[in-house]
Every structure is written in C-alpha cells, then in structure tokens.
Amino acid sequence: MIKKEISEIKRQFTNEHCTITRLCGCYVDGEKRKMAEIKEAFLSLPEDEIFKYFEIFRKSLSGTLGKNLINMEFPKNLDFQGTSQAFLYQLRESRLTNPELLESFYDKVIETYDYVGNYLILLIHAAYDVPGKTSDGIEMNDASDEVYEYILCCICPVNLSKAGLSYDAETNTFRNRIRDWIVELPETGFLFPAFNDRSTDIYSLLYYAKNAEMLHDMFIHDFLGCTLPLSAGTQKETFHSLIADTLGPACEYEVVKNIHDKLNEMIEEHKDIPQPLLLEKEKVKTLFADSGVENSVLNQFDETYEKHFSHIPEPERPALIATNLTNSRTFEIKTPEVVIKVNPERTNLVDTRIIDGKRCIVIEITDEVSVNGISLSMQATPDQQDL
After folding, report:
1. In 3-state terms, what secondary structure has residue 253?
2. Which of 185, 289, 329, 363 is the most exposed place for a label (fewest CB within 10 A)?
C-alpha cells in the first residue's frame, strides 16, 4: 500500500465516512488470561466512545511507510488451506459474527504476542464501497468499482492512570484522584487484506508497529505467517556494515560523504513517487560506484553482501528502504570526544587534512559563529593574518 491508499482508509474513521460494521475485543491481563470481551454493532455505540475508537484506528495506520507501516506478503509456495492467510480470510468472511473463530483469534494472539502487562485486542470489520476515479484522480461517488471488506486489528496497552490530585466540583476541594485502567493508543496492529491499487489484495497485509525496532517477530512469523522484515534500525546497521566491510582500508571520509550525499540526492529525486525507494543488491552496488568507490574495491562487494544476508533465503531477501538508511536532516561526524552535526546540503564545508603531521577535521566557518549561544568575533588578529 502507498500513502494515498492508507490515507483513503484512514478517512473512513470519521462520523461522516464511517464504514465499520462491527467491533469485537478481548481484554487480556498480565497473566495472559481473557478477562472480558466486547461484541458490538459499531454504530450503536455512544458517540463519545466512537470518537475515541476512531482515534485508536487512525493511529494504527499512522507513521512512516517502511518504518512504522510495513507491507507484508504471505508465502506463495504453500497451500492456502490451513494457513494463517486462510484463517484471516475466514475471519473476514464471517464479519466477526462467528464466536468460535473469534475465540481462536484471541487465543492465537495471546499465544504469540510477547508483551508484559495488560492489553486490549480490538478487531473491527468494515465494508468500504470504493468510489471510481477519473483519469485525473477525481472521485466519482456514484461509480463504485468494488466493495473492499477488511478487518483491522489493534493491540493496545492497558495501564493504570498516574496518581495525583483532582478537583472535586461538588465539594469545591482537591482530592486524591482515583486511578483508572486506561486504554492507550496501539503498540501493534494490522490491516487485512491490503488495499493495493485501491483494490482487495488477499495475498498481502499492512502491519503497524509504534516502535519500529520492536516488531514482535513471533507474532509476525507464527501467527500472521509472514516473512520477518528487517526493522528500520537493522536496515541502517546492515547498510553501514556493507559500506565499512566493502571499503575496508578505503573507508575514508570523502567516500562515505559521497555515499551519503548521493543517497540523499536519490531520495529527493524520488520524493514525488508514491512507492518507497528500494535498494536491492545491484542498486546498492551502483550507489557505491556512483559515489567514487574504485572497481578494485567493488570486487569485494558481492561476497560482502552475501555474508550479511546469508541467513535469509535468496527469494525472501528484502530490499533496503532508502529513507531508513540515512538521516536526511543532519550529517554527523563523531569522535570519542567531539560530535559535529552539519546541514546535509553543506557537507562541502567539512574536509580532512594533515596539519602538523596530525589528521584533522577542518570546518570552513563564516562570520556567524557562536559558542554556547555567545556570538564570537571572527575578525582575524594580526598574527592570524600572517598565517
């Protein structure tokens, strides 16, 4: 799914466009016991409750695509029957009205979701009458192409509110606030089936993780049955290792800076394209070559790449997402004692030189320099002018 398709589904979580038919849920305590269940026709709920549920559902479709929101595909080499995909399909087809399927769903989540504490499993069914679009992207509400039926699962922590004082209007006094169990915004969620090309795709789903470095591997692999993705942080670490291991002794400042600049340039050129910029093996190698890495050094790239991805079968090896590999807001140079942060567009202001026999990082400065907020006078002294 791309940003526009995700936004199109999120727009349904409002009073004006709501297409949710049913809400179900299960409250699980810290001992993994099912303490309470919800089964409601969604639109029969009080309006103030509906509004709070909308906030939860919108959050589960928020974040950075490729980081917090991850497109996942089901394995295609398995029989459909008996798979996680088949189970989710059957659950969607039931419109959440089959008690046995719901209980099985809750049991599977509880068994595979590694979480310490109380949480609420929320599950909705919705039926979206997808409007057609003209060639220039204008929606035609009276020209529906299909009905997109989906389920959305949100797993929300449930924690005690903080202790404190509250004002009691009846007695005009301040009292100790009663601590309540509060349903927080979701940590994890998924949308099935995916809404790819504005149409139903039962071979994919969209996964949400509030913390991009805590994807809940067992939940993804054992329950959803999808290939485990590389987290955004792991992608960045892998990319940095590829650079360091490929370049070896040639891992000099100028080459690393060129790779950073070239990568940001590629991201900028791609910004108007809906799909994330993916870097597979050959694209990474081309990036290195375009950044000035010598052919003699690149000869080691294939071997290095295979070493870093040998634990993943070749057909399942994920491409690296360009925006996960670099910080487009800052260029950082770090030593054990000093950290220098530079505007990525002005990396040309930093250079490395040998001065008095020592390797130095040299920064070109202007007349506007401050230290701890204090502006410095940058007029050269007579001694400095002689240098």
Report:
1. helix
2. 329
Would you state the structure tokens that stand for residue 229, as one six-digit string? 């993705």
Tell me, what amino acid is at 327?
N
Which one, of 142, 205, 289, lies nearest residue 9 by Cα? Answer: 205
Residues 190 and 212: beta-carbon distance below 8 Å: no
Distance CA 208, CA 231 (A): 12
Of 306, 256, 312, 251, the C-alpha closest to 281 is: 306
The number of angstroms, rounded, from the C-alpha of 339 to the middle of its chain's C-alpha atoms is 28
Please check whether residue 65 is in contact with residue 2, taking contact to mean a CB–CB distance below 8 angstroms: yes
- What would the pLDDT profile of 333-378 be if each residue is shown by its tens digit? 888 888 888 888 888 888 888 999 988 888 888 778 888 788 887 6
* Cβ-Cβ contacts under 8 Å for 208 (sequence gap 6 or more): 60, 61, 62, 63, 68, 69, 70, 186, 188, 189, 190, 191
CB 257 within 8 A of CB 92: no
Task: Tell me if 225 sits within 8 A of 74, measured CB to CB.
Answer: yes
Lowest mean pLDDT among 48-52, 115-119, 206-210, 348-352: 348-352
| Tokens describing residue 273 | 């394209």
Nearest to 227 by CA among 50, 84, 32: 84
A 10 A CB-CB count for 21 gives: 16
Grouping H, G, I as helix, E, B as strand and the rest as coil, residue 13 is coil
The whole-model pTM stands at: 0.85
CA distance 28 to 187: 14
Around Cβ 77, how many Cβ atoms within 10 Å? 5
Q: From residue 220, give the alpha-carbon distance in Å to each of 155, 304, 309, 318, 320.
A: 13, 28, 20, 15, 19
Q: Answer whether 127's CB lies under 8 Å from 151's CB.
A: no
Q: What is residue 185's predicted lDDT score, i.e. its pLDDT?
A: 96
- Say what the pLDDT of residue 142 is: 60
Task: Report how far Cα 165 is from the mean position of its chain's Cα atoms.
Answer: 37
pLDDT at 107: 97
Q: Which of 102, 98, 123 is nearest to 42 (CA)?
A: 123
Please name which of 162, 153, 78, 155 lies closest in space to residue 117, comparing C-alpha atoms: 155
Distances (CA, A) of 43 to 54, 147, 148, 236, 359: 12, 19, 19, 44, 69
Q: Which helix (H) or strand (E) holds 244?
A: helix 232-247
**21 backbone dihedrals φ, ψ, rounded to 5°:** -100, -35
